[in-house]
Amino acid sequence: MDYFPKQYAEPGTAPGSLPERESGAAPVTATLIDYGPDHCEEVTLDHPRDCRPYLERDTRTWIHIQGSPDIETLALFGEVFGLHPLALEDVARLGQRPKADHYAGHLFLVLALPELAEDRLSLQQVSLFLGSSALISFQSGGGDPFGPVRRRLHQASGRIRSRPLDYLLYALADTVVDRGFPVLEALGDRIEAIEDRLLSEPSQEMVARLHGLRRELVLLRRMLWPQREVMNGLMRDEEGWLDEDTRLYLRDAYQHAVQILDLIESYREMTASLLDLYLSTLSHRLNEVMRVLTVFATIFLPITFIAGLYGMNFAGGPWNMPELHWRFGYPFALGLMAAVGLGLVAFFRRKGWL
Description:
The chain is an alpha+beta fold. It folds into 2 domains: 29-281, 2-Layer Sandwich (Beta Polymerase, domain 2); 285-351, Methane Monooxygenase Hydroxylase, Chain G, domain 1 (Up-down Bundle). The chain contains 9 helices and 7 strands; from the N terminus they run ββαβααββββαααααα. It has helices at residues 52-55, 71-81, 85-92, 147-154, 165-178, 180-200, 204-235, 244-310, 329-351, and strands at residues 29-36, 39-44, 60-66, 99-103, 106-117, 120-130, 134-139. Strands 2-1-3-7-6-5-4 form a 7-stranded mixed sheet, with helices on both faces. The longest helix is centred in the last third of the chain and has 67 residues, at 244-310.
């Protein structure tokens, strides 16, 4: 299970210091989409300074950086767009708690993007900078989650092209929030499969998978709970970054975040109930086994007593065993044992114990 990588600065490190890029990090690709009501142009960026001609136009610009950029690239983007060093540090040090920070000249958001591939959960960091003429997004993973937004931008009838830049911020944030629904749907299917297995054939393997699911749900709740608060804060934006109309759309994203947290809480309760079900099933099966063993022990207890009594072989005295030299003594002892055993079986059946 791939949990969200957490990077800490060493104690005493100067604020705003950028860490070195980790080995094996996802390759970096940068794309720029310049759009307006009548046009949409998408280009691949070779250098951060290539953005400057587009910033001078009376259009809206979206720059998306996919992967983990190195220190030099981050510093250049910070220089071109005037990004605060503390915000750049949060972009570089993955594992930040979802939040919204206001800086002079731009609004900075950190969001958590859940991904589930081959039953492996991961949470990727999405960082968004909203300025007066451009929006910059950083996404740490290897896959681009914003393909649907790109297609909407390229459609001439798309609402995004006719709206201010803050509406694009809403579209990206809403995409990140909504990615939680398919992840939770897959987790729900896994919970149902575990429930069916626990009812038919409970095993330690199912318990281990159940504990793994609970850890994943705890991780999701820890990262997506503050994301709901970010959406709530954006709805009540007092810094003037978001239009009133955009805040109405953000209400929908906030409601989706609330629904996702409700699903997480429901799934956590279901996993706890399944663990109780497993323990109850084990206890029931143990009780069934003990009942059968007790019934057999009770049946054979008088039979063992009879066999032990007639095995003493006392003879030759006034208190000898009369059946010892009786012609039908052995059949009599066997019949007595069978009668006692069958009588007990009939008694147990009438009581409903068998």
